[in-house]
Amino acid sequence: QDDLKSKCVILFGRPETNKISQQFKDNFPIKFSEDKFTWQGITYDQPTQGVAQIVENPLDPDSREWSEEIIDIIFEASMLPKKPRTYRRVARQDFLNVAKKKNKTAKEIRKAIRKQLNYLKRNFGYIDNMLDMFEQGAFPLTHTEQRYLWVIQEVYRQQNYMFRNNIHQCDHRIVSIHQPHVRPIVRGKAKTKVEFGSKLGVSLNCGYARIGKLSWEAYNECNDVEAEVEAYKSIHGHYPETLLVDQIYLTQKNRQWLKEREIAITGKPLGRPKKESPYEKSKKKKLKNKRNQ
Fold first, then answer.
1. In this structure, what DSSP letter does residue 84 have?
2. Which of 51, 111, 116, 156 has its CA 20 to 30 A from that of 100?
3. Could you tell me which residues belong to the region Disordered (predicted)?
4. Contact at 8 Å (CB) between 253 and 268?
5. In angstroms, rounded to a whole number, what is the distance separating the alpha carbons of residues 155 and 151?
6. β-strand partners of 214
7. What CA–CA distance (Å, rounded) separates 5 from 276?
8. How far apart (Å, rounded) are the C-alpha atoms in residues 78 and 83?
9. How far apart are CA 104 and CA 143, in angstroms?
10. Residue 122: predicted pLDDT
């Protein structure tokens, strides 16, 4: 049960053949019945038809649900006669009414975000007032629970800032309350427009790889050129003769900096392409292939 709460789960089989699917069948947007299933009002009953879909884990709480869980934890440790009212069922239904829509307008999304922010704001008020009761006693939250509280407070601050300013980005944006260090990286690819993960700057020399930078922030790699080249000089005592880099590193500033230090590069030169001899073409191709190895 703990793994279901904290991990992504891949389920195979219908609710009749899979106990976990049976447990969460009411949370699926797909409705199963005997020998058929219904999706968006269309029923599929052919034996060759199947379905695969990614859905929200109902046991994986978001920021609002974590704040509600923290309220429950503090209430159990307190002497209060009545638990604060959080309207969690209404809040959950408001979220699902928009999340399950196939086509959502910008106005509907903004209205849903405003509601969830207001629910969170009220929950934070309850949490602060209840925690004030424990100034003279033992703190009711464990380190993990307190960490989640800090994270969802920062998520609320970021989302409220973007909502008030009507923007869709902010510095150090948190996209996962379980991994707050992960940042969204917009790549602009057709298959995956946004990727999540760390950026690793690695230099290769004489078969040895050296990690120059590891960061979870979304930054432009072209700013690493000077630091990597200077690190090479500090190790070997001289600048490299040739730099085999991707085109993204070859900005005008980096080209000028490398030219001043007489470091050759393998990228395309700026301006109109010049005529090259077969030897120059062959040499450039070999260097390019060496970089791609």
1. P
2. 156
3. 268-293
4. no
5. 6
6. 200
7. 61
8. 10
9. 38
10. 93
Chain position carrying tokens 């001043």 = 260
pTM (two decimals): 0.64
Report the helix count and the strand count for the chain, using DSSP H and E. Answer: 9, 9
Report DSSP state, residue 49. Answer: -
Each of the 293 residues of the chain gets a pLDDT tens digit; together they read 455 555 556 777 777 777 777 776 766 667 777 778 786 667 888 777 777 665 555 544 478 888 888 998 888 888 888 888 888 889 888 888 888 887 888 899 899 999 999 999 999 999 998 888 887 667 888 888 899 999 999 999 999 999 999 988 888 888 888 888 888 887 766 666 777 778 888 887 877 888 888 888 888 888 888 888 898 888 888 888 888 888 888 888 988 998 898 888 877 777 777 777 787 777 767 766 665 55
Cβ contact 11:20 at 8 Å: yes
Q: Which pairs from 80-87 meet CB under 8 Å and 24+ separation?
A: 80/130, 80/133, 84/126, 84/130, 86/119, 86/122, 86/123, 86/126, 87/119
CB 211 within 8 A of CB 229: no
- C-alpha 47/C-alpha 164 separation (Å) is 50
- DSSP label of 226: H
Burial per residue of 70-97, b for 16 or more beta-carbon CB atoms within 10 angstroms, e otherwise: bbeebbeeeeeeeebebebeebbebbee
| Token output for 5 | 């709460």
For 100, residues 6+ apart whose C-beta sits below 8 A from its C-beta are 29
Under DSSP, is residue 262 helix (H, G, I), strand (E, B) or coil?
A: coil
Residue 242 tokens read as 């040739």
- Residue identified by tokens 């970089």 is 291
So what's the pLDDT on residue 59? 45
CA distance 9 to 22: 14
Reading the block at residue 83, the tokens are 């638990």
E-strand ranges in 12-143 read 31-33, 36-39, 42-44
